[in-house]
Amino acid sequence: MIDSNRSVKPNSSVAGLRDSGRIKKVERPDDRTEENRFDPIIEIRELTKVYGKAGNTARPALDHVTLAIPRGSLFGLLGPNGAGKSTLINIMAGLTVKTSGSVSILGMNIDREPRNAKAAIGVVPQEINLGRFVRPAELLEDQAGLYGLRRAERRTDEILKITGLYDKRDSYIQALSGGMKRRLLVAKAMVHNPPVLVLDEPTAGVDIELRRQLWDTVREMNRRGTTILLTTHYLEEAEELCDHIAVINHGRVVVNEDKSSLLARLGTKYLKLHLHNAIDPIPEVLSPYNPFHETKEDGSVWLTLHYPPNVTEAGDILIAIGEARLSVIDLTMEETDLEDVFLHLVRESDIQSSNRLL
Q: Signal sequence span per UniProt (predicted)?
């Protein structure tokens, strides 16, 4: 049975499960209070999953993964194909049996309280698995019934409004666009009002406009207090939405920290100079800035200088440029983005993984 006394500070109820004909609720904490702000809502410790028989040739899909996902965060889980992201989500959802380690959701261990833990999350799969001749309102009502929600507890119209589908509530699903179907998957996962929503590649295969509509939906849910765990291949998406980011590769966590710290720690700025003439050799005064000189196909000459903003100020570089007596037509400045950081971390992880196999 689900112990309703396990609740933390109640806000709005999370889904129930049908047990002996009654609805047993797990209460949802207020993720926005100062008290809960730094308290993890998901704790993963030493989680390991090995497919097949363990042995010298078996490579784990997850290798002692440890993560703590803060309450109320919009948490991005990044990694290349085969990194272990889907395996992690499937273990949380009870679809895959772990080899070792532990996972707790809202303080409930998935082994000791599997039904409670599963009731605390909603999972939006990557694949669109909706019936063609069902209406959105009917789908959400049926899903609410599966969770054992009474009529008075159902939020069908509210959820359809949040996801921008209220005006399509009575249309057949086959008549919806691809983006609308993806939003309906999100709505379906919200039926039991889980405190945690897991989005597995939610914008895969949709155009830019529909992607941004989904972003708006995700932001609105997070603003209302839902903790979001987002897996994505779109680094622009993670940089736009997430406040915490973990990178996983070869089944191991490469990094796990808030986005601003991650970008600052590995951040580099680039000062690109459009020059009147080619220079050879490059002045010695510019050597600390790892200069890169190139002449492009159109004949334009460019010099790129690299510097870490937490160590070097732009003014120092401008002084060095003056001392080098360069003839500059124009200059632009660029910053490291999440893609640069991601590629850097994955390359390092690949090297370490290769060394472990030697």
A: none
User: Is 119 among the domain residues?
Assistant: yes
**Which segments in the chain show pLDDT lower than 70?**
1-38, 53-57, 205, 264-267, 310, 335-358
**Helices 136-146 and 178-189, axial angle in degrees (round to 10):** 20
Report the distance separating Cα 296 and Cα 310, nearest Å: 31
Could you tell me if 291 and 225 lie in one domain?
no
pLDDT value, residue 12 = 42
pLDDT for position 7: 36
Is residue 279 domain-shared with residue 132, that is, in the same domain? Answer: no
Residue among 253, 260, 233, 254 at smallest CA distance from 339: 233
Same-domain status, 189 and 236: yes
Tell me the β-bridge partners of 252: 249
Residue type, 258: D
Together in a domain, 85 and 108: yes
Whose CA is closest to 180, among 136, 230, 120? 136
Q: What is the pLDDT of residues 127-153, one digit of tens each?
A: 888 888 899 999 999 999 998 899 999
What CATH number does residue 125 fall under? 3.40.50.300
pLDDT tens by residue, 228-280: 999 887 777 888 899 998 988 889 998 888 888 777 665 677 789 999 988 88
Please give the residue range of the domain that contains residue 294: 268-335
| Residues 211 and 156 reside in one and the same domain | yes
User: In a 3-state reduction of DSSP, which class is residue 186?
Assistant: helix
Distance separating alpha carbons of residues 124 and 192, to the nearest angstrom? 13
How far is it, in rounded angstroms, from Cα 42 to Cα 2? 18
Total number of domains in the chain: 2
Matching residue, tokens 């000791």: 112
